[in-house]
Amino acid sequence: MTETAQAPVFAIQRVYLKDLSVEIPHAPRIFLETQQPGVEIQMDVGSEQIADGIFESTVTITITTKVAEKVAFLIEAKQGGIFEIRNVPEEQMPLLINVVCPNIVYPYLRSNVADTVQRTGFPPIHLAEINFEGLYQQRLQQMQAEQAQAAAAPGSGSAGTGNGSGGAAH
After folding, report:
1. Rounded Cα distance, 101 and 83, in Å
2. pLDDT tens digits, one per residue of 48-103
3. pTM, two decimal places
4. Which one of 44, 90, 95, 119 has the fewest CB atoms closer than 10 angstroms to its CB?
5. Which residues, including other chains, have CB under 8 Å from residue 85's CB and lie 6 or more apart?
6. How far apart are CA 93 and CA 79, in angstroms?
């Protein structure tokens, strides 16, 4: 084989909005509330190999705002990206899939969420930057701790393992 055939390949094939849902269950009365809404944000990262050398990376965000225990609005959005990744050392793949790809997809998600919130008529919500490498390291530590706990537990014949896609509230 030639050297170019062995060269690592990392290419963005497509970035797309995979899912978007908006609910304003108490409209129009919720717009008359004068209290500042409370905001809860949950985020999750996922990935899947969809063909040889082709991977999908997704970042999902759920924003729930409440005014006096009533849901003002709920937004769920999932941004996806398709990436070609070939001839990359196996030990580098988890970092690419869990850190690099979400870092590329996330700005598109932020923009779509900001636009969606603006269209609801509520005050804007601008999502903060996310340290995907820090989240990935946290998930690895959590998985290692769970595996160590399962191994130490007496009579634990078969321990279930997580899929590594835990959510993080910000």
Report:
1. 8
2. 999 999 999 999 999 999 998 899 999 999 999 999 999 999 999 999 999 999 99
3. 0.81
4. 90
5. 9, 10, 53, 54, 55, 93, 96, 97
6. 20
